[in-house]
């Protein structure tokens, strides 16, 4: 399995690792088949993601996609963050082996889950804005 230099860099030197104690958006997703778990913490102010950190339990590709996803949305608006797809994460990493594409999907889902949490904390139903909040384990039973 061959990884790009960008994937190796984000695995060896992940950006934005850790937790945010006063986060106002937290999302956690996982894949039962591979065992990867991603947790994203955000500090959102005036609709801007001022800070973002992650904790990932998983393979190198899971760490790299989490790292890249946080880099892609840091400093962006919530709306711009929701537009970040797993494809954008893969492109920013200059590719992933097909067997590891699910890691980029988890990264996208973790961002969506955190943003859904952000809206819930404000008493806003996130589904019309976020779509699937990716908090449902049943979605991942077959993946």
Helix count equals 6
Terminus-to-terminus distance = 20 Å
Which strand order spans the largest sheet, edge to edge or round the barrel?
1-2-3
Helix content: 40-55%
Which helices and strands, and how do they pair?
Blueprint lengths: L4 H8 L12 E6 L6 E9 L2 E10 L2 H14 L4 H5 L3 H7 L8 H21 L5 H4 L13
Antiparallel strand pairs: 1-2, 2-3
Compact overview of the structure:
The chain is an alpha+beta fold and 143 residues long. 41% of the residues lie in helices and 17% in strands.
Structural description of this entry:
This protein is an alpha+beta fold. The chain has a single domain (5-132), classed as Sufe protein. Chain: A (Alpha-Beta Complex). Helices cover 41% and strands 17% of the residues. The protein has six helices and three strands. It has helices spanning 5-12, 60-73, 78-82, 86-92, 101-121, 127-130, and strands at residues 25-30, 37-45, 48-57. Strands 1-2-3 form a three-stranded antiparallel β-sheet.
Please name the defining characteristics of this protein:
143 residues, alpha+beta, three-stranded antiparallel beta sheet
């Amino acid at each position: 399995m061959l990884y790009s230099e960008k994937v190796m860099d984000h695995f060896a030197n992940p950006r934005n690792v850790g937790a945010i104690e006063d986060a106002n958006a937290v999302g956690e997703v996982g894949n039962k088949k591979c065992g990867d778990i991603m947790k994203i913490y955000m500090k959102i102010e005036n609709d801007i993601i001022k800070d973002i950190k992650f904790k990932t339990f998983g393979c190198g590709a899971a760490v790299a996609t989490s790292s890249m996803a946080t880099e892609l949305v840091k400093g962006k608006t919530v709306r711009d963050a929701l537009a970040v797809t797993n494809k954008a994460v893969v492109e920013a990493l200059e590719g992933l082996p097909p067997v590891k594409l699910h890691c980029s999907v988890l990264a996208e889902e973790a961002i969506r889950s955190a943003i859904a949490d952000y809206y819930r904390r404000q008493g806003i139903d996130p589904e019309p804005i976020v779509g699937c909040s990716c908090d449902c384990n049943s979605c991942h039973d077959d993946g």
